[in-house]
Amino acid sequence: MKEVKCECGHVNPHGTVLCESCGLTLIEEKAQGKLHDMRYEGSARRSQTYNKTIVDKIWNFFSSVKVGVWLIVITLVASALGTIFPQEMYIPTIMTAAEYYEDQYGWLGKLYYDLGFHNLYSSWWYLVLIASIGVSLVICSIDRAIPLYRALNKQRVTRHESFLKRQRLFTTSASENIDASFEKAKENLAMKRYKIREEDGNILAEKGRFSRWGPYVNHCGLIIFLLGGILRFVPGMYIDDMLWIREGETKVIPETNGEYYLENKEFTLEVYDKDKDNEAFSEAIENAGMVPKNFQSDVILYKKADDSLPGEEAKLEQIKEFNIRVNEPLKFDGYALYQTEYRLGELSTMSFTMMNKKSKEEFGELTIELNDPQTKYDLGDGYSVEVMSYFPDFEFNESGEPTTKSRIPNNPAFVFKMFSPEKPEGEISFVAIQQNLEPFGDNEYQLRFSGIETNDVTGLTVRKDLTLWLFALGGFIFMIGVAQGSYWNHRRIWLRRKDDEIWVAAHTNKNWHGLKREISTILEGTGIEEPLDQLQENENQDSEKKNSNHE
Amino acid sequence: MKKQRLLIRTVILLVLGAAVVYTLYANFTKDDIQKVAVGKKAPDFVLTDMNGEQHRLSDYEGKGVLLNFWATWCKPCEREMPYMDKQYQENQEEDVQILAVNIGESNVVVNEFIKKHDLTFPILNDKKQEVQTVYGIGNLPITFLIGPDGNVVNVHEGEIINEQVVIDMIKEIKP
Fold this sequence. Notes:
The structure holds 2 protein chains of 2 kinds.
Chain A: E1 4-5, E2 11-12, H1 54-63, H2 65-81, H3 97-114, H4 124-154, H5 161-165, E3 169-174, H6 178-191, E4 195-199, E5 202-207, H7 214-231, E6 238-246, E7 250-252, E8 260-271, H8 282-288, E9 292-304, E10 316-325, E11 330-332, E12 335-356, E13 362-369, E14 376-380, E15 383-391, E16 394-396, E17 402-404, E18 413-419, E19 427-432, E20 435-437, E21 445-465, H9 468-487, E22 491-498, E23 501-508, H10 512-522, E24 532-533, H11 534-550
Antiparallel strand pairs in A: 1-2, 3-23, 3-24, 4-5, 5-22, 6-21, 7-8, 8-9, 9-10, 11-12, 12-13, 12-21, 14-15, 15-18, 16-17, 18-19, 19-20, 22-23
Chain B: H1 2-29, E1 46-48, E2 54-56, E3 64-70, H2 75-90, E4 96-102, H3 107-117, E5 123-125, H4 130-134, E6 142-146, E7 152-157, H5 163-173
Parallel strand pairs in B: 3-4, 4-5
Antiparallel strand pairs in B: 1-2, 3-6, 6-7
């Protein structure tokens, strides 16, 4: 396969339909219509001409816009199917995901899970689809932008007659004074900000060529966007973690290499008060019940000031105090802490009074820190209590023994040994919420529940995202491309002398009506006739034919 | 000309293919990425055991360390504890140290557990939950095998199902 030399002397790449330079038809069978298909200037799209090796075959597959559109359609359908059942992150953790989907939705749910719809964005085939769209974007763009650039760059002023004739806007008109007409037309064209090139007395006036690059700029933006998505997988570029802190606690912030610590001073959940807040809302508040107004964590950020190891008491240096609210994250060193969750009223302490069951006489009170109870509480005068067992999240296991489900004091239970002057060996009692068992017979003393204190826990999302600027850049370039392609048109007007006739042809990539109006002002007073819209003419002829058939 | 085109196409396809493969690979491995990776240095820490003795990981350099993370309410942890304790007793002369880090439960609970299972090896308590944050501990139990050079040799996720597993682990980290 060789390059094609046109009769004008220009050498075109193989597969060119219309000569890049003069516009002569090089491949008759591809340009048979009455009008030329000007979409890619009749340039040689490489994908359609070389198809030998496996590389070419892959290339040509992705170069097809049809394939690209299908990829997008399939991805859209898959995305829609992914919303039929809830995604994995939203299902309760009562059983494994596989069991849950089958249990809740039957065989459809099982299929849904097996095909990976339950975690769509992490499904390999979904990622392959998105990646294929990206590949298709790159290859489609390369395969069209380069030949188009060549064709527009190589175009001559003097176009072949067959090229002009087969433009949508075309006409010939006789003129006595061609030079004068051309001078006037040039003046008008310049006023409309056309770039004018002349050759052998012929004119090519062109403007807005850069709008042809709009789609490709737009694609570059999309590809940068996708790169941002890939970059999120690179370790350290994107962090999304969770930090739970009780009020009064100071904890190391995860993913900061042990550098930063956070103290939770207080968590507040405010609700709208129908008496205090705007009266207009009082009815709505009454109907809805509790309406949250503010979720807020008052925190202090610390930085580690020494090189202590994890587990050691670190010297902390206060960086700042801050009130984290929804949408008002605490930002530091590339990290952001967002208010995302909370747990209200987690038990923190429980108090008991030691009491003689018969006389009801009290012998002192003990307060137990539920997150770290002491082993022994001395009440004085020979009275003391020993904690023998502690179950923060109490339940009976299968064999009927008391155990704990977790370390969170959701349902605390204790085995106490009570010492008194009368019972120096101690009496054992099992105490849980609303329960007081005496497993070894009647005790003389009992621990009477006397109060609790609770604590709020705040849940903060730890986020670091070094990829965000790429998404912003990609989005910005995308918009530039959109604007470039939609607010400007590429318009060309050819004026050619042919003996004592003037041939006029014009082309635009969109908004033909605008071009026609512009031409009519340009040709005003030049004595040149306005070009006719051959497409409309064809339609008129067709419809006339139809009408006559009806008659 | 034709060769050049083939070359350019091949290069572009390879670059795109590499990006796709990387994305898929990263996506598949993102769940089991441990913060403490095999072959990397195990992060140093200082923790106090239930007898009040301090343990600093780097002090054990030159010895192999079997570092286990556990909780009292975790059933598999409870089942594997006796295997580790037995091997601890049998290997006291050897250059291998077995350490079990509780994820910060109260002393009452941990001591009761030690008493119940009659454990003799050092049980450390990560009260401030800093060590587990650094090691990125999610599911329990998890056991890190640290070689004499202080590098992680292997990570065993989940339960140690019998004593032989512990024996093999010790073999792996013996100097």
